[in-house]
Amino acid sequence: MAKCCVCGKKLGLLSGESFSIQHNNLLICDECQNNRSNINVKRNKNINQKTILNSREYFQKCIDAGTVEQEVLPAIENMIEESVLAEEKNNEYHNRKKLFKMTNGYNFEGYHISDYLNIVSAETVLGTGFLSEFSSQISDVFGTNSGMFEGKIATAKDMAVKNLVDKALDAGANALIGVDFDLMTLSNNIIVVSANGTAVVIDKK
Questions:
Q1: 19, 37, 150, 205: least buried by Cβ within 10 Å?
Q2: Of all helices (H) and strands (E), which one includes residue 159?
């Protein structure tokens, strides 16, 4: 009877799948395959850290128990190592993001700009929807603000800022100066919010 090449579990006649193209003669069970998917930090940005850690521990236990076939052992060890490195990089990225500064001006009190990196921009496109448009028209008649319409713009603005900060971080910046926003409306009730700024490196004076 066939068995999983990672955990050693016996497989049914129609259960399991090939470990990889290189090792298509070896089968991996559903549980191991699920953990294999969960351990990838880059692909699973929305999976919580505990799930990723549990999957790493799962494979380490398989290695310690000696159930992993020698042919796939290097791949499993490499997968664990890559997951650890990706987690460290991810944590460093989030730490930088917490300390990130942004202004619509051109300096920060107590800091000096040591490097100007690049101009960055980010756009967000959102549909306002029929109800938002209808609500806005009624508000125009009565001279009040449209909460639904304003909510859509605020959401688009927040998303644009998030994308802008991500681009600046990828460029190696720890701050943005001269941040401004452009708002455009297209046909079919579409809102485009563009955020722009200069990515810089700042240091404390």
A1: 205
A2: helix 147-170
Domain shared by 91 and 117, yes or no: no
Structure tokens at 29: 């069970």
pTM above 0.70, yes or no: no
User: Along the 205 residues of the chain, how does pLDDT read in single tens digits?
Assistant: 689 999 999 988 777 788 887 787 899 999 999 999 888 755 555 567 788 889 999 999 999 999 999 999 999 999 999 888 888 887 888 888 899 999 999 999 999 999 999 999 998 887 755 444 444 444 444 444 455 566 777 888 888 999 999 999 999 999 999 999 988 877 666 778 899 999 999 999 8
Q: Is the domain of 194 the same as that of 128?
A: yes
Closest by Cα among 59, 86, 85 to 73: 59
The DSSP symbol for 64 reads H
* Pair (94, 109) in one structural domain: no
Q: How far apart are CA 138 and CA 205, in angstroms?
A: 53
Could you list the beta-strand ranges (E) of 108-174.
Answer: 111-127
Cα–Cα dist 168/189, whole Å: 30
Edge-first strand listing for the sheet containing 101-102: 101-102, 175-186, 190-204, 111-127
